[in-house]
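Hi Y.,

Following your request, here is the sequence exactly as I used it, all 181 residues.
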Amino acid sequence: MKPIETNRLILRNFTEQDAEGLFAYTSDPRVNCFLDGKMDNLDQALEEVRKKSTDDSQIAVALKEDNTLIGELFAMKEEPDTFSVGWNFNAAYEGKGLARESAEALLHHLFEEKEARRLYAYVEDNNFRSQKLCEKLGMRQEGCMKEFISFTQNEDGTPKYENTFLYALLKKEWSSRREES
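Below is the corresponding structure, written out as C-alpha cells. Let me know if you'd prefer a different format.
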C-alpha cells in the first residue's frame, strides 16, 4: 500500500523492523478477540510481520518521528463496496488520540480512494475503549449479537461466549459529518 501520513503517524505496510513493536502488544493481549494472535517470542513476531508485510489489508501504524510501531489497523474488503475494520494498539500509547488519528485516516482512505460505501466493526461488549473510538469516528451501534463468538474458555473448559456490538458507518454519513465540521 502507498503510505498514508497524518500529523503524527505513518500508516504503511509492515516491515521486519516492526517485529519488536508487534511483540510488545501481542505478547499479552488485552482483548479476548486477539488471544489467537498471542506471541510467545520475538521469532513468532518476526514471522508474523513477514506475513503481514505482503497483505495490504493489514496496516502498520508507526510514529512519524522515529517509525516506531505502536499498533495496527485492518480493513478487509467484502464485495462490492463494504469493509470490515478494526485495530489493535500498544497500551503504552493510549490516551494520546493516536488510535483515533490513525482510524480517521483509514476511514478517509477507504471512503475516498477505495470507494467504500459502508464500513463496519465488531466490538465486544466489554471493550469500552473500542466502543468509544467507534463513536468518536461517527460510527453508530446497529445492534448487539448475544453470545456471538467464543475466543476463550470458562474455568470448566466450556466456551465462553461474548456479546458483540456491531458498529457501522455509511459514506454518506461520513461525508455529512465532514461537511458540518
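The chain has five helices and eight strands.

Thanks again,
Q.
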